[in-house]
Amino acid sequence: MRFVTPIACILALGSCDAMAGAWTQAAGNGLFIITASTYNAGGYFDNAGRKQSQPDYGKYELNPYLEYGLSDSLTLGANLLFDRAHQDGAAGGPSHTNWNLGDSEFFLRTRLWQQNGFVVSAEPMIKLPSPEPSDAQPPLGGSSPDAGLGLSAGYGFSAWGLSHFANLDTQYRHRFGAPHDQARLNGTLGIGVAPRWMVMPQAFMTWRTVASHVADFTNSPANDYDLVRLQLSAVYRWQNDLSFQFGGFDDVAGKNTGTGSGVLFALWRSF
Asked: Dihedral sign, CA of 212, 217, 222, 225?
């Protein structure tokens, strides 16, 4: 399962101009985030949403994320994944380890409207599948590309002398090949708790558009699955252009997907 990096945040906590999510970068400016995370799952949600046990599955992921302002209202971005996954064997069978470049996503974010702290943007995207061999186990990505269109809305405001924000991302994703399409909804709150600290509760939700009567669970993002993942993290602004993020996440509901948890650490750099 691909960990989704939390891009809806204020890098410089005193300025709403440095937000991502629905916000675009100023022309010639950019944002780079490198996230390291671990994920472990000793179970999965079956096709009916019931928890089942499985041999231990673990993944280490390095996630570079980049966006750059082509103009004040148009931002180009890329989201890359480098994964190392390990799956214990069932009933004494062989275990498997796989590492490679995962799925790669590229997008354009265009600002549609902005006023009084509110912003609305549209984001077309494409996903290129992992270059890993088709028989590699455990799989790290899908075997076919995706194309999607998202709509995001954000609101940045000040209260109690600190900066805060709320962001909502929606996306419909067409998946070529065997997997069915997906609908996604992500929500983020950025709560300033001190001049250099922000706390971010987040929810990441994915729904399959077609629920197969029979589904084989493979710990692969190519599965047709539902997933609700909750995440809580904190961002510390060390310098005006450099911040650190750390937190954890947990899979709380789903169908045909792993039920696991993990931790993350990220470096944010604006330029």
From this structure: positive
